[in-house]
UniProtKB/TrEMBL annotation, chain A:
Residues 7-304 form the Prenyltransferase alpha-alpha toroid domain. It holds the Pfam family Prenyltrans. It comes from the Eukaryota. GO terms for molecular function: metal ion binding; Rab geranylgeranyltransferase activity. Keywords: Metal-binding, Prenyltransferase, Repeat, Transferase, Zinc. Belongs to the protein prenyltransferase subunit beta family. This is Geranylgeranyl transferase type-2 subunit beta. The keyword Glycoprotein does not apply.
Automatic annotation (TrEMBL), chain B:
Belongs to the protein prenyltransferase subunit alpha family. InterPro entries: Leu-rich_rpt, Leu-rich_rpt_4, LRR_dom_sf, Prenyl_trans_a. One of its GO terms (cellular component) is Rab-protein geranylgeranyltransferase complex. This is Geranylgeranyl transferase type-2 subunit alpha. Its EC number is 2.5.1.60. GO terms for molecular function: Rab geranylgeranyltransferase activity. It comes from Oryza brachyantha (malo sina).
Length: 319, 691
């Protein structure tokens, strides 16, 4: 452990590029079904470190499109895996990074997501009907990026999310579900994108979220749990969206993240001295981005994409 | 990958790892092939079982099993056979959960099966499984979600589930999941007024005792503190929304220039704002719920608008703008306006309770000099500096009489709830005696209890007591800043609200910061100076509705939310604060009379991350149509991607004077030109004449 020092950006870039090629280890195989998520985590990290050009864009897009199910309009987590919104959002986000939404049949993809909204406003993850506020966020985020938010019943979608609000100010996966930082990000993100943050008690939720900071500086996801680098993203982004991020100690958090780096081989782990993976590498760098770490591009807290990408999508001339 | 130690691969492990990987690779390939070929044989199903045993997250394998189950079901007729097919699936789930008790796919597979309702559910088995799981990890939220699902599925009474949370809490006080479920169940039972849950007071008293026991057992554990905060919120909020302030106040005499009346600067533009301020956000203000009666013929379509930054249907503060410009006031120099809230049921809080005290007030407006005020000689159009205001001689306060007129409306004074106060006082006594002197939660909770008490004791003879509570709370927040420096700025924000409370709680207190500014041709303007007070945010805006010149310079403000209620504000000094973006200034777009704004020496343009980006309406939150907002800017080749926030702000204000120096954004290329372009009414920018 000890002093995490500075961000080993070059090492992390190398780690991401090599992980991408190491498909045959047991660890990679266990994650095979979510490779499209992995692509989003890795590529977004590269972009945040201003190294997106380290990969061949056309190759990436071609592979992304090979996970597409033209009959449904959704994406699977990898070639041959079933379609699900979890991977559809990642596909949309990666295409946004490369400014290549033109590769999509936008209306077909949008209709896939639209078709998953239920009568009560909630969203299913796929045809099998699992309902979770994560899927509400995914649907709203993806449709907004595709400029197709108007295709769903936004009011009902918002009402459902609000019905998952808890007495501690947080949100759960479904009505009655316990507050959890990841779930809070999803609900606050969906409310932010739909201009509905007035449903959030910002002081109450802000206090709950800032109390996620543990003694060692890292953030946990629920009370009385261990700190974990991934919550640097879930908690920080939520705090930013509700304008309460100054309630935590950013220096201590940055130190915690930097201490979780593998400074030799690159990559970031959940806690100091644990095994690194692409997921925590992304969340660590994204967390540093939200704390304005020098050399890391700033990120949009709601769309989970670099700020310039989001600004381009919503502000450029064509729209 | 969570909780796996980082270590170099040992060579002797490599072979084993390779074999393990090869097995998994084959399995995954075979299962996917069977899935695509729609092969649902026993052998094929066995392979998917094996795969899910190793990797319960392989979601396509769960989908495959559902398809197979449906397919094979068609061939089964005996109920026993159906039951056995279900059993097979339940077993796969159990095996998968052994590998990963937090597998979304596994838990959902089980719910899906039960929801098919093909056979009676063995609830003993289900609850047994849950007991085992929650014994291993009492916080597994999948387990708790499944428990709620089951309870609903089989119609377990909420009272029973409430007992279960009690069992779990007795096992271990530090079980946030159980406290959470308890709060959900109790809220439901109280809303339904189930038997034994008719009295909120009785239930909450018992809960306070229960949670206090937990808190005293281990004050460093967070679980109980959050529950306590919830109880406190239930205990301190009044049942019905109340009107706590208005502008104009009852009996006020308004004009633009008569020195014996209150200045209303917007009368210059023929607009008279009426502001109503409630103690909590309400909706439903309209021409049908609020009756306006006037000898002045006001338009029939009176529109009440919510004044809140997030602009929802609910707001603490509501405004209507009466148009008085088109009057033939040769015949009418003075008119009176009566405001009454008549239709009480229409004004409703977020929790659904309605406004319940009828309210009535009236004021008069003198129009005599509106047309004689020449635009060119408007004193506001001369450069105003902030050091011009001499402090008032201590023995005179010319504004005194007018302030008396601006007192908070009394129509809403509510009966203090004795139970609330008693309960809170008991808690305060308890926490003052808590032996662990350095528990930050104990101090914070005590501060919150004191402030809740102070809020109830806001009037008349209790004012002294209220001040005492505020003093004690301030001391606690100061302690906390040192005790828990990581959350320093949270405590500073809380302290800031108490400070504003103290500064404004009665007229005696406010007077110290008040003076008037006499400008030619205008009635004197009320000036309030709250400088160098370490304020980080504003509260109690309802007490400042009458302020026309507000100096908040040399504080640590990063948000100005609340100022949108100050519809009389003409000049605002925010220099030397910590405002870090134009989006944070969005409240100003709601103040129609604002002419002079000093933003010098803030942090606008310093921070790449804008924390008000989603608080302020924008194209990212679909509250503003980008094409409409930016069309003209695009034509003028203004960089919309870089300056969208400045554009949205300046498009919606009508400033005559603006100071921006000492902000990083002012040095950006082309920015100052953009400011001048966007503000056609601007005469002075950073002290120089621009138009």
């Amino acid at each position: 452990m000890g002093d995490g020092g500075e961000l080993a950006a070059e090492k992390h870039v190398r780690y991401i590029v090599t992980v991408e090629k190491k498909k045959d280890s047991f660890e990679s195989l266990v994650m095979e079904h979510i490779r499209l998520n992995g692509a989003y985590w890795g590529l977004t990290t590269l972009d945040l470190l201003q190294k997106l050009h380290a990969v061949e864009a056309d190759e990436v897009i071609q592979w992304i499109m090979s996970c597409y199910h033209p009959e449904s309009g959704g994406f699977g987590g990898n070639v041959g895996h079933d379609a699900h919104v979890l991977y559809t959002l990642s596909a949309v986000q990666v295409l946004c990074l490369f400014d290549r939404l033109d590769a999509l049949d936008v209306d077909k993809v949008a209709d896939y997501i639209v078709g998953l909204q239920n009568e009560d406003g909630s969203f299913s993850g796929d045809i099998w009907g699992e309902v979770d506020t994560r899927f509400s966020y995914i649907a709203i985020c993806a449709l907004s990026l595709l400029h197709r938010l108007h295709k769903i019943n936004v009011q009902k979608a918002v009402d459902y999310i609000v019905s998952c609000k808890n007495l501690d100010g947080g949100f759960g996966a479904m009505p009655g579900g316990e507050s959890h930082a990841g779930q809070i990000f999803c609900c606050v993100g969906a409310l932010a994108i739909t201009g509905s943050l007035h449903h959030v008690d910002r002081d109450l939720l802000g206090w709950w979220l800032c109390e996620r900071q543990c003694k060692e500086g890292g953030l946990n996801g629920r009370p009385e749990k261990l700190a974990d680098v991934c919550y640097s993203w879930w908690v920080l982004s939520s705090l930013i969206m509700i304008d309460r991020v100054h309630w935590i100690d950013k220096d201590k958090l940055a130190k915690f993240i930097l201490n979780c780096q593998d400074k030799e081989n690159g990559g970031i782990s959940d806690r100091p001295d644990n095994a690194v993976d692409i997921y925590h590498t992304y969340f660590g760098v994204a967390g540093l981005s939200l704390m304005e770490y020098p050399g890391v591009k700033p990120m949009d807290p709601a769309y989970a994409l670099p700020l310039d990408v989001v600004n381009r999508i919503f502000l450029r001339k064509e729209h | 990958m969570h909780g796996r130690p980082r270590r170099p691969d040992k060579p002797e492990d490599a072979a084993a790892a390779e074999a393990k990987a090869a097995k998994l690779r084959d399995l995954q390939a075979q299962v996917l092939r069977n899935h695509h070929d729609r092969t649902y044989s026993k052998e094929a199903l066995g392979l998917s079982f094996k795969l899910l045993e190793i990797n319960p997250e392989a979601y396509t394998a769960w989908n495959y099993r559902k398809l197979a189950f449906q397919h094979n079901l068609g061939e089964l007729s005996e109920p026993e056979a159906v039951k056995s097919a279900i059993d097979d699936e339940l077993r796969v789930v159990e095996v998968a959960l052994r590998q990963n008790p937090k597998s979304y796919g596994a838990w959902y597979h089980r719910k899906w099966l039960l929801n098919q309702k093909l056979a009676p559910v063995d609830f003993k088995r289900e609850f047994g499984l849950l007991d085992k799981l929650l014994k291993v990890d009492a916080r597994n939220f999948h387990g708790w979600n499944y428990r709620r699902f089951l309870a609903k599925f089989m119609g377990v009474p909420e009272e029973e589930e409430l007992k279960y949370t009690m069992d779990k809490i007795s096992d271990n006080f530090s079980n946030y999941s159980a406290w959470h479920n308890r709060s959900i169940l109790l809220s439901n039972l109280l809303i339904k007024r189930s038997k034994g849950f008719e009295s909120k007071q009785k239930i909450f008293s018992e809960e306070f005792e229960l949670v206090t026991q937990a808190l005293f057992t281990d004050p460093s554990d967070q679980s109980g503190w959050f529950y306590h905060l919830w109880l406190l919120a239930q205990t301190s909020s009044p049942e019905n929304p109340q009107l706590i302030a208005s502008w104009p106040s009852n009996g006020a005499k308004l004009s633009l220039s008569s020195s014996s009346s209150i200045c209303c600067y917007s009368l210059k533009e023929g607009i008279l704002p009426i502001v109503l301020y409630f103690n909590e956000p309400v909706k439903g203000l309209s021409s049908s719920s609020v009756n306006l009666n006037s000898d002045l013929v006001v338009g029939k379509n009176i529109q009440w608008k919510p004044l809140s930054v997030t602009d929802s249907g609910h707001s603490n503060c509501w405004v209507t703008y009466l148009e008085v410009s088109n009057l033939e006031y040769s015949s009418l120099q003075q008119f009176s306006v009566e405001v009454s809230i008549t239709n009480l049921d229409e004004i409703v809080s977020r929790t659904g309770s309605n406004f319940c005290c009828p309210m009535h007030f009236s004021f008069t407006v003198e129009l005599s000099s509106i047309d004689s005020t020449d635009q060119d000689t408007d004193p506001i159009h001369d450069l105003i500096s902030w050091d011009f205001l001499d402090p008032l001689p201590s023995h005179v306060n010319p504004s005194c009489t007018r302030f008396e007129l601006l007192k908070i409306t009394d129509a809403s004074v509510h009966e203090e709830s004795n139970w609330h106060l008693e309960r809170l006082s008991d808690e305060i006594d308890l926490f003052r005696e808590l032996p662990d002197d350095n528990s930050k939660f104990a101090k914070l909770t005590l501060a919150r209890l004191l402030l809740a008490c102070a809020a109830i004791k806001s009037r008349g003879s209790s004012l002294v007591e209220r001040k005492g509570y505020c003093e004690e709370a301030l001391r606690l927040f100061n302690d906390l800043i040192h005790l828990d420096p990581s959350h320093k700025r949270y405590y500073e924000d809380e302290r800031s609200l108490v400070l504003v409370d103290q500064l404004t709680c009665d007229m005696e207190a406010v007077k110290k910061y008040c003076s008037v500014k006499v400008l030619p041709k205008l009635a004197p303007l009320n000036h309030v100076q709250l400088c160098r007070l370490s304020l980080t945010r504003i509260g109690f805006a309802e007490r400042l509705l009458w302020v026309q010149i507000l100096d908040l310079s040399h504080n640590n403000l990063r948000s100005i939310e609340g100022l949108e209620s100050l519809q009389q504000l003409v000049c605002l000094n925010l220099s030397n604060n910590q405002i870090s973006s134009f989006t944070a200034l969005e409240p100003l777009t709601k103040i129609i009379s604002l002419k002079v704004l000093d933003l010098s020496s803030n942090e606008i343009g310093t921070h790449p991350i804008d924390t008000a980006r989603y608080i302020c309406p924008s194209p990212f939150s679909h509250k503003v149509e980008a094409c409409e907002a930016f069309e003209e800017c695009l034509k003028k080749n203004i960089n919309v991607e870089e300056f969208w926030d400045a554009i949205l702000l300046f498009k919606n204000v009508n400033l005559v004077q603006l100071c921006l120096e000492g902000n990083a954004v002012a040095n950006k290329e082309g920015f100052m030109t953009l400011v001048v372009t966007l503000n056609p009414s601007l005469k002075w920018l950073d002290g120089a004449c621009v138009h």
